[in-house]
Amino acid sequence: MADQKKQVTKVNQLRPLDTGLNLTVKVVSAKMVAQRGRNQGRFSECLVGDETGIIIFSARNDQVDLAKEGNTLVLSNAKIDMFKGSMRLAVDRSGRVEVGVAASFSVDESNNLSLIEFERIDVVV
């Protein structure tokens, strides 16, 4: 089972509330965000992407050290969170963030999925 190849998702295939995602992305930029309220640890918003597009990655605590500009990250069991109607890529406790080998692809910065605003529609049957 350990030899099974995980299906790798491309950034342009991401959809709201997706879970169980495996991606290889390159960090384009990263900035620390000040947390308000109680002490919730370190938090950084990073622009990450691959050859199909870019998205904001919410890095928390130890993930902040790995998500440095220029690093290639291998995200396992990632998910899409919604924040103010837009998508954010995140990895919680059940997932894993690792620094991978340098990416051989160039990032397509013209397709930013975090700029797409989604609206929730409830259908009553």
TrEMBL record:
Residues 14-99 form the Single-stranded DNA binding protein Ssb-like OB fold domain. CDD domains: SoSSB_OBF. It holds the Pfam family OB_Ssb-like. PANTHER family: NUCLEIC ACID-BINDING, OB-FOLD-LIKE PROTEIN, OS05G0244600 PROTEIN. This is Single-stranded DNA binding protein Ssb-like OB fold domain-containing protein.
